[in-house]
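Example record used in the benchmark description.
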Amino acid sequence: AESGMERDFKEDKIEGAERLENLQELVTLAARYDTLPPGEGLEKFLESAALASDQDELKDDKNAVRLMTVHASKGLEFPVVCITGLEQGLFPYAREGEDKDDQEEERRLMYVAITRAQQKVYLSYASYRTVFGSKNVTEPSQFLSDIPNHLLELEMPERLGKTIYLD
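Model output (C-alpha cells):
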C-alpha cells in the first residue's frame, strides 16, 4: 500500500486485478517467514524462491517428480498425474466479471490435465485453504461432478477431505 502499487493495480482495469492477486499471493508466501528475524526471513524467502526451477531442466532419464502448471503440461504425458487444488474458485479459477467462455476454457484445461496421465490420475481438493492469509472452507470443484462415479475410487469416504483416484 505504501509503495502505491495496490492503488495503481486497482486503477488498471485490464490487468490490475490479476496483478493485485499475484501481489497478495506473494505477501502470503512471504508471511511464512514472519517469525524469523527480518534479515534472516528475507534471506530464507529469497533462497526458497531461488530453488524453484523450470521443469525443462529435468532430464527424461531421471526418476523425479515434475511440478508444473496445466498449461506447461500440454503435449506431455506421464505415467501418473496428480491434480491438486480442485476447489471452486481455484480450479475452476474464479475471476471477477467471468463469462461462460472463461468457464469452458477452465473445463478444457481440466481435460488437458487429466489426459496427461498414461496410467493413473490422482485428483484432490482441500476442505480448508489459506488464501491471502485467511483460512477458508472450500467446496470441491464442479469439474469433479462431471466425472462418472463408476470411474472414481474414493479414499476413506467417511473423512471430510477425500483423495479421488481416476483409472
